[in-house]
Each structure stands twice: as C-alpha cells, then as structure tokens.
Amino acid sequence: MKRHDGARCKMVVRVLVLAVGALCGFTMAASALAAEEKPAAALSVDVLSQYIFRGFALSEDSVVIQPAISVDYMGFEAELWGNVDTNRDSAAAGNHLNSWTETEATLAYSHAFGPVEVTGGFIYYAFDDPAIDDAEEFFAKLALPDLPLAPTLTAYREVAHKPSWYIALEVSQDFALAHGMSLELGARAAYLISNDRDEFPEIDDHGVIHGKFNDFDDGRVSAALSIPVTEYVTVRPEVFWSFPLSSDAESLIRDAGLSVTTDSASYVYGGIGAVMRF
User: Fold this and answer.
1) What is the pLDDT of residue 19?
2) Of 88, 123, 132, which Cα lies nearest the Cα of 258?
3) Alpha-carbon distance 127 to 129, whole Å?
4) Which CATH class is domain 6-277?
5) Given CB 3.0 to 4.6 Å as the disulfide criterion, which of 205, 211, 246, 256 pairs with 216?
6) Would you give per-residue pLDDT tens digits along the chain (278 residues)?
7) CB-CB contact of 152 with 142 (8 Å)
8) DSSP result, the chain
9) Signal: is it a keyword of this entry (predicted)?
10) Nearest to 103 by CA among 77, 69, 59
C-alpha cells in the first residue's frame, strides 16, 4: 500500500488549518456587523481508554487523548480533531511513529428545511503511519432533531484509496437531571458497502477473502452524564459499547488486519470529556 506524497498531505492539512483560521477571522469581523448573527466556537478534549473507529480498534492497552476545535457561523462549520495514543504500537515493525496518530479536518454546511436539518461536507483524514493511506470523505446528513430520539441518517463516501459507502443511522435521547445535569443516551447502527476487496474484504474466520464487504457493519451504544461546571464549560463522563452487527462484520473487524488486536470484535471503553463553548 503506497503512502500519499508527504508534501501533498502536509499542504492539504495546512490549507484546512488556514481555512479554520480564516473562518475564525471572518466570524469575528462579521459579528461586529451583524449583532444578531453570533459565531460559535468550541474547544474540547476526550480522554478515553481506547480509540474505536467504526467498529475497528485503533489502539490497545493505552489511554488516548482526543482534542478538537471547531468554529460555526451561519451554517458553516470548520473543525480540527486529533488523536494522541499514549502507548502506541506500530503495525509496521521498525518504523518510528509519533504519539500523535491522526488529524481530521472537516468542512461542512448545514441548513434547516422545516423540521429536517440537512448537512453536507468533506473530511480529510491524515494518518501518521507510513503503512496507512490518508483518506478523503464526502458526507451528507439528514436529521430530525425535534422528533423523539432525534433520528439522524448519514452517508459517507470515501473517494481516495478505500472506495466505499458507510451509512449510519443514529438515535439519541437526553434526560434532564438536577442542577442542570443531563443523562445522554445514544445508539448507532451502520452498513458498509466496499468497492475494493483489498481494503474492506468479505473474509471468513480463516482469513480467506471471498469478495467485497457488503453487509451490516458495526453498532454502538453510549451513555454520558453532562455536568455543567461553569456557564461555558461542561464535563462528560462517558462509556461506549461497540460491537459487530453481522458475522461478516465480526470477521472483518477481528481478522482482516484493520484492528490492532484480534482478541475480540466487541469493545467496551470510556473515559471523560470536557468542552468549552464560547
């Protein structure tokens, strides 16, 4: 598997970083002209016992730290997110790898059409591992935030090196508690359609590839307790359970070499997060 050209990757990430900065500057200038249109920004960090992405275990036996910054103005949003693995193991023997394993840059736009909120955007995934190609995804989301369980349907299309569709249905419900706290429950089910048998194969328990993956992939349930500390700062203890939704998904997650461990395809993990909004 060939790695993206390093200079190109750095250039793309820098452009997206500049886009976030430009949006920050634009929102501050625009807010002075339109008092009714307030830009919003957020700084957050999650400290978790494991990094699980769409069912795949991307860390093992180490704490991960995931900081993020986002700016939102008039429906436009720019976000930078990162992952730090405090005890990183490399799948490529002999390679020196940094603790900072991944950077994601997202640009999106949202607009409400009556009760339906529509979002479209682009995500660039930059990985600090010569064995992993960077990824580029377009996505479209339909949400009904005012309905019970606030259902959301999102379709992601990878267009760089792992051509595939990842379609996720999510529901969530918040329960108000005393002192401004809330219990936040969520669930997600996803379907994966691969266009490349080498990247996401249909694989059996013996590691034999039979074709391209096309099946239900992963499910996840979550619970978090949102605790307001100040007007701007919230702390969230959180726990997650990730599990395969089909036997093919179990084999893909456990046996295809896409997770850092083959011990299991189900994971319970958690930690604590904090967010500052202003």
Assistant:
1) 52
2) 132
3) 6
4) mainly beta
5) 246
6) 334 444 444 545 554 555 555 455 555 544 444 456 789 999 999 999 999 999 999 999 999 999 999 999 999 999 999 999 998 865 444 455 689 999 999 999 999 999 999 999 999 999 988 878 899 999 999 999 999 999 999 999 999 988 999 999 999 999 999 999 999 999 999 999 999 888 898 987 777 888 999 999 999 999 999 999 999 999 999 999 999 999 999 999 988 888 888 888 999 999 999 999 99
7) yes
8) -PPPPHHHHHHHHHHHHHHHHHHHHHHHHHHHH-TTS--EEEEEEEEES--EETTEE---SS-EEEEEEEEEETTEEEEEEEEEETT---SSTT----SEEEEEEEEEEEEEETTEEEEEEEEEEEES-TTS--EEEEEEEEE-TTSTT--EEEEEEE-SSS-EEEEEEEEEEEEE-GGG-EEEEEEEEEEEEES-TTTSEEE-TTS-EEEE-EEEEEEEEEEEEEEE-SSSEEEEEEEEEEEESSHHHHHHHHHSS-SS--S-S-EEEEEEEEEEE-
9) yes
10) 69
Measured distance CA(30)–CA(33) in Å, rounded: 5
Measured in whole angstroms, the distance separating CA 6 from the mean position of its chain's CA atoms is 23
Q: What is the Cα 45 distance to its own chain's centre?
A: 13
Asked if residues 200 and 162 have their Cβ atoms less than 8 Å apart, the reply is yes
DSSP codes joined into one string, 7-32: HHHHHHHHHHHHHHHHHHHHHHHHHH
d(CA 200, CA 157): 14
